[in-house]
Amino acid sequence: MELELRFFATFREAAGGKTVNAEFADGSTVGDVLRELESEYEGMESRLIVDGDLAPQINVLKNGREVLHLDGLDTPMADGDRLSVFPPVAGGT
């Protein structure tokens, strides 16, 4: 299946662009996709999944919905889905 992957801030730098279309095995979950991204992109290694769960303070959205409000890493993906990955953000006054 083909997925549209969107990256923001430091993850965009690691992926080499804002949007990447990539093929994944049918039946892949969010966790499967994130593990593959960690192994493919050096700047994402150990930054997406920590101790078997979504890394703290990152946001991952499937088609605009936060995966933590779905099935987390077990959220199933389907052909044509969009996965957006945001690194931790800090700042403000």
UniProtKB/TrEMBL annotation:
Pfam families: ThiS. CDD domains: Ubl_SAMP1_like. Signal peptide: none annotated. InterPro entries: Beta-grasp_dom_sf (IPR012675), MoaD_arc-typ (IPR010038), Mopterin_synth/thiamin_S_b (IPR016155), SAMP1_3 (IPR054834), Sulfur_Carrier/Prot_Modifier (IPR052045), ThiS/MoaD-like (IPR003749). This is Molybdopterin synthase sulfur carrier subunit.
